[in-house]
C-alpha cells in the first residue's frame, strides 16, 4: 500500500492503520509483555548458583522474545485481516515465559505460585487435572505458611507446575482465537447480507414488475365496486378484475423494494440499539457487540421484504390483502423489527464467546441434602 500512497500526506499513518486495524491493542499487549520479560531476564542473578543448562534456556527465551517482536512489526507482516501475526507472537511469548520459568529454583518459583494459581483458575475448567494439582499445591503452601513451616517444591512438582501454566496460557490463547474467529464470521455474514440487500434493490429497480410488492384487496362483501391495487409507493383504485395484472405492473414503482428495505433496516437499527442493554461491556479488544449490531441491519431489511412477499402470496391467512400504502409500511416496520427472532440465537452465542475470553465460569455451589428448608412466609 505504501508504494501507491507514498505521495499522499499522512500516507505512512494510513498504511499503519490499514495493517493494524482490529489488532492494535493485542499487538501492544504483546509488546508490553515482551518488554516486561526482557527486563526480568536482564536482572542480575547469582551466576554461580545457576546450573549450566540455564544459560541455554535463557538464550532460547531471548530468541523467542526477539521473534515475537519481529512478528508484530507492522512492516514485516501482511496478515491484518485475520490477525494471525498476533497469535504467532503470543506463541513465541509463551515459549519465552516457559523457558524462563524452567530456570527458576523451587524457592524462586514459590513466590509466583499465587499468580500462577490465579491464571490456572481463570482459564482451566474445575475438573482439569492441571488445575486440581495447582490448587492442591497452593493449599499446601498456604497451610505450611500458617504453621510456620518452610514450603518448598520438589523437582517433579516444579515440572508439573510449569506444564500446568503452559496449558493455561494455551487455553487463554484458544479463547482469544475463538472470539476473533467469531467476530470475523459475523462480519463476513453481515457484509454478504448487505451486498444481498444492495443487489435486491438494484434488480428490483431495473425489473420492477418481476415480483411487485403490491396487494389487490377485494371490495368488502355486499359493497359494489372494483378491486384496488396498493403498493408501498402508490395505489390504483377502481381496477376491474380483468385488468388486475396489467394495472399491478403499472402501479409497481421502482423504489418499492428500496423503501421497504430501508424501513426494515431502520426498524432493525432500533432493535439493535435496544438489544445492547442485554449485552455487557468487555475490556477485551474484540468488537463482538458491534458486529452483532451490524448483523441486525441487513437482516431487518431482508425480513421486511420476505415477510411482505409471504403475505402477498397468501402464506399468512387473513393478511394477504393490505388496504393502503400506510399498512404496507407499518408491516415493514414490524417485520424489520422481528429479525430479533432469528438473531437472538447469534446474540446468545456472542455473549457466551465474550464471556469465554475471561475463562470458564465457576461451578454452582453444591446443595447439601441435610440443609434445612427455607421457612414459608
Describe the protein's architecture and organization.
The protein is mostly helical and 377 residues long. The chain has helices at 11-20, 24-42, 53-71, 84-101, 106-110, 113-123, 129-146, 155-206, 244-251, 256-275, 288-312, 325-337, 340-356; strands at residues 227-231, 234-239. Strands 1-2 form a two-stranded antiparallel ribbon. Strand 1 and strand 2 (234-239) form a beta hairpin. The N and C termini lie far apart (72 Å).
How do the strands and helices of this protein lay out in sequence?
Elements: H1 11-20, H2 24-42, H3 53-71, H4 84-101, H5 106-110, H6 113-123, H7 129-146, H8 155-206, E1 227-231, E2 234-239, H9 244-251, H10 256-275, H11 288-312, H12 325-337, H13 340-356
Antiparallel strand pairs: 1-2
Order of helical and strand elements: HHHHHHHHEEHHHHH
Please work out how many helical segments DSSP would assign.
13
Structural class: mainly alpha
Binned strand content: under 5%
Helix content percent band? 55-70%
* Major sheet summary line: 2 strands, antiparallel
- Backbone shape: elongated
Alpha-carbon distance between the termini? 72 Å
Mean of pLDDT: 76
Task: Report the count of strand segments.
Answer: 2
Q: Write down the Rg.
A: 32 Å
Amino acid at each position: 500500500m505504501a508504494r501507491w500512497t507514498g505521495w499522499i500526506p499522512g500516507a505512512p499513518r494510513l498504511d499503519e492503520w490499514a495493517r493494524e486495524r482490529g489488532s492494535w491493542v493485542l499487538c501492544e499487549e504483546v509488546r508490553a509483555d515482551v518488554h516486561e520479560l526482557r527486563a526480568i531476564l536482564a536482572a542480575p542473578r547469582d551466576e554461580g548458583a545457576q546450573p549450566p543448562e540455564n544459560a541455554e534456556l535463557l538464550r532460547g527465551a531471548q530468541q523467542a522474545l526477539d521473534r515475537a517482536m519481529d512478528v508484530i512489526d507492522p512492516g514485516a507482516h501482511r496478515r491484518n485481516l485475520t490477525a494471525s501475526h498476533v497469535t504467532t507472537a503470543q506463541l513465541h511469548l509463551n515459549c519465552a515465559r516457559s523457558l524462563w520459568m524452567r530456570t527458576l529454583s523451587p524457592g524462586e518459583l514459590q513466590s509466583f505460585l499465587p499468580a500462577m494459581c490465579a491464571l490456572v483458575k481463570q482459564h482451566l475448567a474445575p475438573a482439569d487435572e492441571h488445575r486440581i494439582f495447582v490448587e492442591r499445591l497452593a493449599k499446601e503452601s498456604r497451610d505450611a505458611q500458617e504453621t510456620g513451616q518452610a514450603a518448598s517444591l520438589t523437582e517433579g512438582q516444579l515440572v508439573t507446575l510449569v506444564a500446568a501454566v503452559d496449558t493455561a496460557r494455551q487455553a487463554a490463547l484458544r479463547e482469544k482465537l475463538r472470539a476473533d474467529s467469531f467476530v470475523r464470521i459475523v462480519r463476513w455474514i453481515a457484509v454478504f447480507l448487505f451486498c444481498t440487500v444492495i443487489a435486491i434493490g438494484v434488480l428490483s429497480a431495473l425489473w420492477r414488475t418481476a415480483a411487485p410488492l403490491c396487494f389487490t384487496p377485494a371490495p368488502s362483501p355486499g359493497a359494489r365496486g372494483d378491486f384496488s391495487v396498493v403498493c408501498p409507493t402508490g395505489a390504483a383504485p377502481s381496477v376491474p378484475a380483468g385488468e388486475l395484472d396489467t394495472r399491478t405492473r403499472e402501479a409497481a414503482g421502482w423504489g418499492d423494494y428500496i423503501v421497504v428495505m430501508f424501513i426494515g433496516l431502520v426498524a432493525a437499527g432500533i432493535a439493535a440499539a435496544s438489544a445492547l442493554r442485554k449485552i455487557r461491556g468487555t475490556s477485551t479488544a474484540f468488537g463482538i457487540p458491534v458486529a452483532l449490531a451490524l448483523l441486525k441491519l441487513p437482516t431487518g431489511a431482508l425480513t421486511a421484504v420476505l415477510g411482505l412477499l409471504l403475505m402477498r402470496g397468501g402464506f399468512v391467512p387473513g393478511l394477504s390483502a393490505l388496504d393502503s400504502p400506510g399498512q404496507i409500511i407499518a408491516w415493514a416496520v414490524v417485520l424489520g423489527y422481528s429479525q430479533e427472532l432469528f438473531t437472538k440465537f447469534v446474540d446468545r452465542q456472542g455473549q457466551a464467546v465474550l464471556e469465554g475470553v475471561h475463562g470458564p465460569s465457576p461451578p454452582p455451589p453444591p446443595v447439601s441434602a441435610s440443609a434445612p428448608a427455607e421457612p414459608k412466609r
